[in-house]
Design a protein that fits this description.
Order of helices and strands: EHEEEHHHHHHH
Strand content: 5-15%
CATH class of the largest domain: Mainly Alpha
Number of domains: 2
Helix content: 40-55%
Shape: globular
Structural class: alpha+beta
Length: 206
């Protein structure tokens, strides 16, 4: 399989962590991709021009995009039920929490784009505040359910939250979360020791 990736993308990192947890990392060839580069060919694999995109190795020419879809595919490839419950209330809870983690990342990216990509004269402070409040509420939501999150067998929700928190630190967005959520900090610290997380921290391209 080929993974279109960037070392700064929290959504790509979800795939990397999942592949390591499932023992599938060696089956994935990583293709560096900058979706912001007008010359990039990422649109050939994903018409939206976004990463991650996973080109399957089953001879079908199929390309999967959007990290929840790819994580679920990898889970199924590894036998199923390891990162995502197969059915019932546990599945919906996992998917809901995974969506909340993705929403935190989406809000953070909106802040980053406004601060970095948009010309200063056109920046919208109220929009930055709106998205920052979304991050704050999302983290509070996780804080309220922290006892239901694992520190030993991370699933799709735990992977998503870890990637969200590390990316917020990496980009300096929502930097007050550590002071506001000491229990979340302690939870993060336990999972951060796992090789799948420790070895995939976001970093600027060399």
């Amino acid at each position: 399989m080929r993974l279109r990736y960037s070392p700064t993308s929290p959504f790509v990192r979800k795939i990397s962590v999942a592949a390591l947890e499932l023992g599938l990392a060696e089956r994935i060839t990583r293709v560096p991709t900058n979706p912001w580069d007008p010359a990039s060919d990422i649109a050939h694999d994903n018409p939206l021009g976004r990463i991650p995109a996973l080109v399957l190795d089953d001879g079908s020419g199929t390309v999967l995009y959007d990290s929840p879809v790819i994580v679920e595919y990898l889970d199924a490839l590894a036998g199923g039920g390891r990162l995502l419950p197969a059915a019932g209330p546990a599945r919906w809870a996992a998917l809901r929490r995974a969506a909340l983690a993705d929403g935190i990342i989406d809000a953070g990216i909106a802040v980053l784009v406004e601060r970095v990509r948009r010309p200063e004269a056109y920046r919208w402070p109220e929009w930055i505040e709106f998205q920052t409040l979304a991050i704050t509420r999302g983290l509070a939501g996780f804080d309220a359910e922290l006892t239901q999150l694992s520190t030993e067998a991370p699933g799709i929700a735990e992977i998503g939250l870890m990637c969200a928190l590390d990316w917020l630190d990496f980009r300096g967005i929502g930097s007050g979360w550590r002071d506001a959520h000491p229990a979340l900090v302690a939870w993060h610290g336990q999972l951060a020791l796992r090789p799948s997380f420790a070895g995939t921290l976001p970093k600027d391209p060399a």
